[in-house]
Specification:
The protein is mainly α. It contains two helices and no strands.
Length: 88
């Protein structure tokens, strides 16, 4: 297998940063819209705080599971492609 060039590593790193920022922004937007209802106080009240905490945990757990499933599917695809290559 070929090693990644510096340019490829840079591109991959940029993609990962963009994905992390996108994930954070999506989680922030989702949890804020779901949990924050009252703008009369500067700080979150205890119910809002608990809601945001639970929302963020669920969101991250979901993203982790999606990532794991994607990895499983990628592995299966690679296995299939390797088997097809051996048959040729």
């Amino acid at each position: 297998m070929n090693a990644m060039s510096a340019q490829q590593r840079d591109i991959l790193n940029r993609m990962q940063v963009k994905d992390t920022v996108r994930l954070f922004n999506e989680m922030t937007e989702t949890c804020f819209q779901t949990c924050v209802k009252d703008f009369l106080q500067r700080n979150l009240d205890s119910k809002e705080d608990e809601c945001v905490d639970g929302c963020a945990k669920k969101f991250l757990a979901h993203q982790k599971r999606v990532g794991m499933r994607f990895g499983e599917l990628q592995f299966q695809l690679q296995q299939k492609q390797a088997a097809e290559q051996q048959q040729k």
